[in-house]
Design goal:
single chain, about 700 residues, alpha/beta, six-stranded mixed beta sheet, 20 strands
Length: about 700
């Protein structure tokens, strides 16, 4: 039997625990997106949560986990009579792999059997398996956009629709959606970010004591997982009971008009788009009140919800990182709080009910923010953790769920610990504020030489590829316009009806068919050949030598490359960045989906020295060779930004020969009244398209105006 690492044993990560628990309490919150660096227990804590969810009652034999009390009337395995036989099983944890297909996610219809036998044969997908459980998507930012859209549509509607050539199936699909991602590998697009209810940023703790405790617990778990899990049984049972109690409390939680106006004021002040933020914040505040044992939403509930629901909705530019000004949030909440309702249960006497008794497993000390406690953690270690600075990984949120069965400290201990902690964060916040101010000044100095990006013309790879879905070059894909028909190499996924009928029509007499309609056989079926657009690998090779270092020219070059990066972002490309200066070339950014990382490297790009043009071309050839092995279907596009001068680094002609057959664009940066035309010659050697830097923005406007005219 596989033993799951206990949820209560995870050290720190207070904000993440709170976000997951709020979704477990109320699925209406809309899921959690976990952003963070690698090795921060993102996957571990998600899998641990599933084990704490209440068991679900299902109809025996139903592949769609119908509830016997209220079965889905349109269940493909139905109909089920209400009150039918039932079995209890744990809530499902379903993992969606990055390489999954649309049919694997939503389910598939056997079109061949439907047309030839009249049988509606449906094979459920992962959305059906996750119904009433948890759907976990690791590296959600690497999923194709149309799969993310399909996934989020199902999560929002609570229903999955599958349609193939007028044959339609629908079934319930309500689940707790959790996605994790490493921002270094690329951001989700703002319109997809907005579909996740809450977002949490996690980072590894910088506190040595906390890091040591993480390793200590992990080693104990790996040495004897069963024994380790038994140590945390009491804490896990208390957590599971508290989630179940909060779930039952949610329908009775009241959201006063004053708090609703407070939510609307906060969302409007932060200038979030649309009204989804208001709805999510309201649902999260209700869930938070239920989790805290209250029957009325308070300002504290609104604050806890807003901290998790708004940061990712404030992105305006693709290069912006999610974030929230908590000082502004506190100011808005204080300005609109008015007379808050008593911070308590039905009789207003405390967070858990009469007498102020805490909910099950509620530790009242602020140390519970970042240090989940358990049944047996040593007292001295807990005290040391309470006096330590708040963990960066935990988010330092007073609203994080007190998640384990630790007894509350006595009043004297709590007061002393609170006083010592109050002083440390104040000094730390002042230091952090000063550091942030200095960093902002430095960043402003670095980007001062870059103007606002502009729209650039479409640069594409010639021919027709078969790469990942995108918006740059022509490609045969499963989504796009119909470009013909073919015999299916396997099961029919996209039936071409006219071609199928034309293939079957000549054989009706020999098949003995009479009357209306056609007799179809499997070899009559044809599927659509579709042509759409693919994303490419756009490799930027930028000349950063002394000949480019003139202030105005480098500003224009950086702005042009930033504009091309923005274009790559919008067209779903992977990007890479190579710079050459001095004696050699370096890979400033290996091929990645994170154009944000490319923009950051570009802003701090150093200039000066000789011009090793050949070294830059050789390094580009090496990078492309490796990438062809990794992803042979993704076609490359080389964008060389240079004035064509070469004062070091070897033979340019031999280096250019290494890139034969690679689609290339040379952006000519040469300026002034006297021009040598070196970039023109280089473009000729590479058989590349030549685009003068000065006309890059003008070309974009010409293309835009032409499209409008057409």
């Amino acid at each position: 039997m596989i033993v799951t690492y206990p949820f209560s044993a995870v050290v720190g990560l207070g904000d993440l625990k709170l976000a997951l628990v709020l979704n477990a309490v109320s699925p209406r919150v809309g899921g959690v997106l976990v952003r963070g660096e690698k090795g921060t227990a993102k996957s571990t804590i998600v899998r641990a949560l599933a084990a704490q969810l209440p068991t679900v009652a299902v109809v025996p034999g139903c592949r769609f986990a119908c509830d016997p009390a209220v079965p889905d009337p349109e269940c493909p395995d139905g109909p089920h009579e209400p009150g039918a036989e039932r079995v209890e099983r744990p809530a499902a944890l379903v993992e969606l792999p990055v390489g999954a297909s649309e049919d694997r996610l939503a389910g598939s219809l056997d079109v061949e059997r439907a047309l030839t036998e009249g049988v509606k044969a449906f094979e459920p997908g992962l959305l059906a398996a996750a119904h009433r459980g948890v759907l976990y998507v690791d590296e959600v930012n690497l999923l194709h956009d149309h799969l993310v859209d399909l996934l989020l549509d199902a999560a929002a509607l609570g229903t999955c629709y599958v349609e193939r050539e007028s044959v339609s199936v629908r079934h319930a699909a309500r689940f707790l959606l959790v996605g994790t991602m490493n921002p270094e590998e690329g951001e989700l697009r703002p319109q997809l970010l907005d579909r996740f209810g809450l977002t949490v940023e996690v980072r590894a703790s910088r506190d040595p004591e906390e890091r040591a405790e993480v390793v200590r617990r992990r080693l104990a778990f790996e040495a004897d997982a069963a024994a380790f899990a038994r140590r945390w049984t009491a804490a896990e049972s208390a957590l599971s009971a508290r989630i179940a109690a909060a779930r039952s409390r949610v329908p009775g939680v009241r959201l006063p008009d004053a708090r609703l106006r407070q939510i609307a004021t906060v969302c409007a002040a932060f200038e979030v788009d649309g009204l989804r933020a208001d709805l999510v914040t309201a649902n999260a505040a209700i869930a938070h009140a239920a989790w805290q044992g209250r029957d009325t939403v308070t300002t504290e509930d609104v604050r806890a919800a807003a901290r998790l629901s708004l940061p990712h909705r404030r992105r305006r530019d693709p290069f912006d990182a999610p974030g929230l000004d908590e000082a502004l949030l506190d100011e808005l909440l204080e300005r609109t709080s008015g007379d808050d309702a008593p911070d308590g249960g039905p009789d207003g006497s405390g967070p858990g009910g009469p007498g102020g008794t805490p909910p099950p497993g509620d530790g009242t000390g602020p140390e519970t923010r970042n240090h989940p406690t358990g049944a047996e953690p040593p007292t001295d270690r807990r005290t040391a953790a309470a006096d330590a600075p708040a963990s960066a990984a935990a988010g330092a949120d007073a609203d994080a769920p007190p998640l384990a069965g630790d007894p509350a400290p006595d009043a004297a201990t709590a007061t002393g610990a609170a006083a010592s902690r109050a002083a440390a964060p104040k000094a730390a916040s002042q230091t952090a504020s000063q550091m942030a101010s200095q960093a902002a000044s430095q960043a402003a100095a670095q980007v001062a030489g870059m103007a606002a990006p502009y729209r650039v013309p479409l640069l594409e790879v010639p021919g027709v590829g078969e790469g990942a879905v995108g918006r740059r070059s022509r490609s045969r894909t499963r989504r796009g316009r119909s470009a013909g028909a073919r015999r299916p190499p396997g099961p029919v996924r996209d039936l071409h009806v006219p071609a199928t009928l034309l293939a079957a029509a000549p054989h009706q007499r020999e098949r003995g068919h009479q009357g209306p309609g056609l007799a179809l056989r499997g070899d009559d079926l044809r599927e659509v050949v579709r042509e759409g657009r693919e994303g490419n690998l756009v490799l930027f090779v930028v000349d950063a030598s002394g000949s480019m270092a003139a202030r105005k020219r480098m500003t224009a070059v950086k702005t042009a490359v930033l504009s091309l990066l923005l274009d790559a972002y919008q067209r779903r490309d992977k990007i890479g960045l190579i710079t050459f200066r001095g004696a050699d070339a370096e890979v400033a950014l290996p091929p990645t989906s994170s154009v944000e990382a490319g923009a950051a490297r570009l802003r701090s790009l150093p200039t000066g020295g000789r011009t090793p043009l050949a070294a830059g071309l050789v390094r580009a050839a090496e990078v492309l060779r490796v990438e062809r092995l990794r992803d042979p279907a993704r076609r490359p596009l080389l964008v060389l930004v240079t004035d064509g001068r070469a004062t070091a680094g070897g033979d340019v002609d031999r280096a250019a020969a290494l890139l034969a057959g690679t689609a290339s664009v040379v952006v000519d940066c040469e300026s002034g009244p006297v021009r040598l035309g070196l970039a023109v010659r280089l473009a000729s050697r590479l058989r590349a398209r030549l685009v003068p830097l000065d006309s890059l923005a003008d070309l974009g406007s010409v293309v835009r105006d032409h499209r409008k005219a057409v």
